[in-house]
Amino acid sequence: MSVWSWDGVVPAVDPTAFVHPGAVLIGDVIVGAGCYVGAGAVLRGDFGRIVLRDGSNFQETCVAHAFPGKDVLVEESGHIGHGAVLHGCHVGRNAMVGMNAVVMDEAVIGENSIVGAAAFVKAGARIPPDSMAVGSPARVIRALTADEIDWKRRGTGVYQQLAREAAGKLAPALPLDRPEPDRRRVTAPRYDPLTIERRGFSERP
């Protein structure tokens, strides 16, 4: 990882967290136990504090930054999908922000809620607990079922397992000039991340 102090404040990373070497942490950043931070992620704590609480994940190319004097907080088991942007907001426990979504200043995503991919959550918005929010600007379309909340929890569990395994599986390498004839395939987790799309999860009324 690329770690930078800001005005003498140094990022803090729990020893059980995994932060990819290609991630950038700047200033007042706190990464809790068992977190996963993906390649290309940027957590820029120069205006306000960025906190990832235990078991949360912040996937590849995500960005966190804060309006001056405001913090970004991702509560326990929060799940921030690839390419999402968090700016001065609060993501509740076991909530999920979908891929390429944007959550703006002083917005609050309630516990267990899901913000759909590419959604825009405007400044000051409140997404209540156990809700599905989609669109631009994001609006709540329905409550989540217990099965859907459990689906999300299990999906985050995959990233919690990844945080435990990544340090032992990731290693620098040089590219081969051609694939080996008997090239081994990478084994995906048992959990299927496409289940939500296949079920038309965000489409049901």
From TrEMBL:
It holds the Pfam family Hexapep. Signal peptide: none annotated. Residues 195-205 have a biased composition (Basic and acidic residues). Residues 170-205 are annotated as: Disordered. Coiled coil: none annotated. This is Carnitine operon protein CaiE.
